[in-house]
Structure of Aspartate carbamoyltransferase:
Amino acid sequence: MANPLYQKHIISINDLSREDLELVLATAAKLKANPQPELLKHKVIASCFFEASTRTRLSFETSMHRLGASVVGFSDSANTSLGKKGKPWRIPSPLSAPTLTPS
């Protein structure tokens, strides 16, 4: 069976159905029981926190590193040009563009 989350860009919990969420939790349980430290080797994952959230950001980034990924991003949009321009921003769908675009 194909993974229904393959190449699905998840921006919010609202992007997941109940079945999707159950799949995420089941996959997390499998990874916890059988760690795969090179699963995301040679992958770059963006970590974009629009509000300060140190514990959440660090736990997400630690998990990404444990799976072998490289992490780029920011932890507070106020410290980026996004926050300084005062414009509303939206994330393109799907999240494939290298920059954010004004809404």
In short: The chain has three helices and four strands. The CA atoms of residues 89 and 102 lie 5 Å apart. Residues 95-103 have pLDDT under 50 and may be disordered.
